[in-house]
Amino acid sequence: MTGRRTTDPEELKRRKDRILELRRAGLSYTVIAQRLGLSWTTIRKIVRATDEQI
C-alpha cells in the first residue's frame, strides 16, 4: 500500500483483505495502521467502504 487514494474496487478489496488478515492474527487497527503506514481512521474507512460496496 502506497498511501495513495484509490477508488478501484479491486484495490480496495485487496487492501481490506490484507487488513482483515492482520485483524484475524490478533492485531489492533492501530498496529495495522503503523505496519501499513496509514492512520487507523483510514484503515476503518477502507473496511467500512468496502463493506458497503461488496
Q: Structural class, please?
A: mainly alpha
Low-confidence blocks of residues: none
Distance between the termini: 20 Å
- Beta strand count: 0
What's the number of domains?
A: 1
Alpha-carbon Rg, integer = 10 Å
Largest sheet report: none
Give the CA-based shape.
globular
The string of secondary-structure elements, in order, is: HHH
Q: Please, how many helices?
A: 3
Strand content: under 5%
Helix content: over 70%
Mean pLDDT: 82
Give an account of the 3D structure.
The structure is a single chain. By secondary structure, the chain is mainly alpha-helical. The chain has one domain. It contains 3 helices and no strands. Helix 1 crosses helix 3 and helix 2 crosses helix 3. The model has no long low-confidence stretch (mean pLDDT about 80).
Give the helices and strands, then pairings.
Elements (H helix, E strand, L loop, with lengths): L8 H16 L4 H8 L3 H14 L1
